[in-house]
Specification:
Blueprint (H helix, E strand, L loop, with lengths): L7 H13 L2 H7 L4 H15 L4 E3 L4 E3 L1 H32 L1 E6 L8 H11 L4 E6 L2 H9 L5 E4 L9 E17 L18 E5 L5 H13 L5 E6 L2 H9 L5 E4 L10 E5 L5 E9 L4 H14 L8
Parallel strand pairs: 3-4, 3-5, 7-8
Antiparallel strand pairs: 1-2, 5-11, 6-9, 6-10, 6-11
Helix pairs in contact: 1-2, 1-3, 1-4, 5-9
């Protein structure tokens, strides 16, 4: 028979026999009956082509080959145990997964820096990012798919959430095509009453849809809503193509998308950025992420 037929149990059985020098005691130590134990020792000797022990009615003795092989068997068993422990530790590390929901605009508020700092603090934790709308994040937390989320609009407090923290409130600004001749000063939105507006789908963010609509109404007009999007980046890109104007959070100024200009608008209404935590989230990770978010995630300038 080939050496590939040797199993770890053969080595364990032989090590026990070498230390007990009794088939009966060694078999009991290995939690097997003596007949299959004896067969395993015979198989090992057959595999190796050497005699490992001498047997008599009164005693069991190791041969010189047996003594030499015992040292190697112990070393192999130790290496195997170490490998098993390493795999278990690795599996434990994989089990430490932290699922983070985020809206795309969070990438322009410093989310990447916060995630990088978290990974440095917890190198054995697998952080998985999931881009979702604010409402989808809330649903994800309720379903247990997310541990925490970074939303960009007010979400209702639910029993399924153990925490809902507002990180900061950010200004709204106007995003318009670059060819618009607009003064570099806060604008009265009424000046844009004849423009096509690009708004969020209400299903994606009721807060943003209603807030921007109310800003226009407060300025004395109902916006002509020609285009609806589900991402702020899509809104800015659409503006760059000249198909309308949009009111967006100030962080979008840093996107680097060409063909657009940004102007302040006359309003005290702000865009909140919130941190949501699931009830069953790892408390240590959730707290650490919040602390890092307060350091790294912030508006493009201090919001009042």
């Amino acid at each position: 028979m080939h050496k590939e037929a040797i199993e770890l149990r053969h080595l364990r059985y032989f090590a026990a026999l070498a230390e007990e020098l009794s088939f009966g005691r060694a078999a009991a130590r290995c939690h097997v009956s003596q007949p299959p134990f004896s067969v395993a020792i015979q198989q090992l000797e057959s595999f190796l082509g050497v005699t490992l022990v001498t047997r008599s009615s009164r005693s069991v003795e190791l041969t010189e080959s047996g003594r030499q092989f015992y040292q190697r068997a112990v070393a192999l068993i130790s290496q195997a145990n170490a490998s098993f422990d390493e795999v278990r530790r690795f599996d434990g590390m994989l089990a430490q997964r932290f699922n983070v929901g985020f809206h795309a605009s969070m990438l322009y508020r410093g989310l990447g820096d916060a995630i990088g700092a978290f990974r440095s603090q917890f190198p054995n934790v697998r952080v998985s990012l999931h881009e979702m709308s604010s409402m989808s994040q809330l649903d994800g937390i309720q379903r247990g798919e997310l541990d925490v989320g970074f939303t960009h609009s007010i979400v209702p407090h639910q029993e399924q959430l153990i925490d809902c923290t507002t990180l900061f409130n950010e200004r709204f600004v106007l995003c318009a095509p670059k060819h618009f001749n607009l003064p570099n000063e806060p604008l009265d939105l009424a000046r844009l009453k004849d423009e096509n507006f690009i708004l969020f789908n209400r299903s994606a963010s009721p807060y943003y849809f209603d807030t921007i609509l109310s800003l226009c109404v407060a300025a004395g007009f109902s916006p002509r809503i020609e285009h609806r999007v589900s991402q702020w980046l899509t809104a800015v890109s659409a503006v760059s193509m000249g198909i309308g104007v949009a009111i967006v959070p100030e962080c979008l100024v840093t996107t680097g998308i060409g063909g657009v200009i940004f102007r302040d608008i006359e309003t005290t209404v702000r865009s909140p950025v919130q941190y949501l935590v699931a009830k069953d989230a790892n408390a240590q990770f959730a707290k650490a992420m919040l602390e890092l978010a307060r350091i790294h995630i912030r508006p493009s300038r201090v919001a009042s």
